[in-house]
Design goal:
By secondary structure, the chain is of the alpha/beta class. It has helices at residues 13-27, 48-62, 81-94, 109-124, 166-174, 177-180, 191-205, and strands at residues 4-8, 32-36, 66-69, 98-102, 141-145, 158-161, 211-215. 38% of the residues lie in helices and 14% in strands. α3 crosses α4 (109-124).
Length: 229
């Protein structure tokens, strides 16, 4: 069983949006999995085989416990009943305490559809008298990571300190050469430079070197104030 299941529209979204959090969870001894909904192809410089190899390399860098691909169509991802059934079945099988999905406002239709799908599948996973595999199960929370295609200035629910894990997060992203290196402009600031700058900005907001922001539709409860940075 997993403590955390990150649902990503495409391979690389989990690494971009919350690679540092994933590494932090693992360092804390939590069991973490990623479910990629599509293979992310076609892209200008990638292929299904290349993307699978890159994903395997990134998975090794992250050291996660479980990763699968649901095999839904890239570029035309929709929160259909069939897709909901498939995802709810996975949730009942891996039984995560927390679900992580993309932020619900985005220019990329796949990202918006992915979050709608996660929210619906979380509800379906708890249903009795269904043809879903496994026993009914309801994850405690859905948190939302930021991997967006809009120039947003979000106000997150919280920012997680990832200072100790930034370099390893970067190494996981660099595994996706076809997406973030090949064919990219080489003059500064590069895509990876901007990614570092964003992480540094979020770190600054909480007084650390690097951070990752997260949203949540539901109120967050604190047992105490001792974990605040």
């Amino acid at each position: 069983m997993l403590d955390v299941l990150v649902v990503a529209p495409h391979p690389d979204d989990a690494e971009l949006g919350m690679g540092g959090a994933i590494l932090k969870f693992k360092a804390e001894g939590r069991r973490v999995g990623i479910l990629d909904l599509t293979d992310g192809e076609p892209t200008p410089h990638g292929s299904p085989k290349m993307r699978a190899c890159e994903t395997a390399a990134a998975t090794s860098v992250l050291g996660i416990d479980w990763r699968e691909n649901l095999g839904l169509p890239n570029r035309s991802l929709e929160p259909t009943l069939d897709a909901r059934h498939q995802l709810a079945g996975v949730i009942r099988q891996v039984r995560p305490r927390w679900l992580f999905a993309p932020y619900w406002v985005d220019a990329h239709p796949d990202h918006v559809a992915a979050t709608q799908l996660v929210e619906a599948a979380r509800f379906w996973a708890k249903l009795t008298k269904s043809d879903l595999p496994g026993e009914p199960y309801h994850p405690e929370r859905i948190f939302n990571y930021f991997c967006v295609h809009l120039k947003l200035a979000p106000q997150p629910a919280f920012v997680l300190d990832i200072s100790d894990h930034w370099q390893q997060k970067l190494a996981s992203i660099e595994c996706y050469q076809s997406q973030f290196v090949t064919g990219r402009p080489t003059e500064s600031p590069t895509f990876l430079d901007r990614l570092r700058d964003e992480a540094a900005y979020w770190g600054k907001t909480i007084g650390t070197r690097y951070g990752e922001p997260f949203a949540c539709r539901e109120p967050l409860g604190l047992a105490s104030m001792t974990s605040l940075v």
